[in-house]
Amino acid sequence: MSETVLKELRDGVLLITLNRPQRKNAFSVEQWHAFADAIEAAQADDHVNVVVVTGAGGHFSSGVDLSDFGEESAKAFERASWAVMNFDKPLIGAAPGAAVGGGATLLFHCDVVYVGESLKMRLPFVSLGLVPEWASSYMLQANIGARRAAELFYTAEWINADRAMETGIATRVYPDEQLLDAAMAKATEMAQWPVRSLQETKRCLKVAHAAAIKAAVDAEMAGMNKQAGSPENIEAVMAFMEKRQPDFRKLLKG
Questions:
Q1: CATH classification of 1-176+196-254 is 3.90.226.10, yes or no?
Q2: What is residue 33's predicted lDDT score, i.e. its pLDDT?
Q3: Fewer CB within 10 Å of terminal CB in the chain, N or C?
């Protein structure tokens, strides 16, 4: 098991900890695969009734590690995203600190989301000249409503814990030092029930969303194929590397 993802099983609750604190748990190729391994193993293990996902070092995840981004990263991300979307047991997010990009959209697939008071969430896709991913274009509006989701996607603004609670992204907000204990306590409460009953209940909750999730993934992939490597995407990446604000206006013709 990769040290980039830690696992601990307690009374039917599997705690998965994203463990690259030096990078605010930004996902590398290795970590995407390790996370997929952990989710797939939890799926097959009848001793696991509930999974809690959190991050080490005071942050959930700052998204994709751009220093390790490329074709292999895209493949590893796709594997991990489908592992999560197909996971049929209760999945709880416990998110302190940074939750950006894939670190935010992962939370939209959690059945319950607890956040710390330090939460700093962002959906930066338009600011990168890209489109949403991980079926987030559907999952966010399914959770909080179309207009609220549109505002957060179109502005790429920062979302703190209070805003996450107000919009409905978060189930509850806790002081950071209480967050994981509270999430584990609630997960333990869930895990006392038969795993088959939990799985069937999740199936009932999710069945109406399956076709929409697949449609969102297809639309996002088409959009990403158009936008990845586009002039605006290149400008956004160059601006990030040069530590300046991107100037998308200069790309306009005429």
A1: yes
A2: 97
A3: C
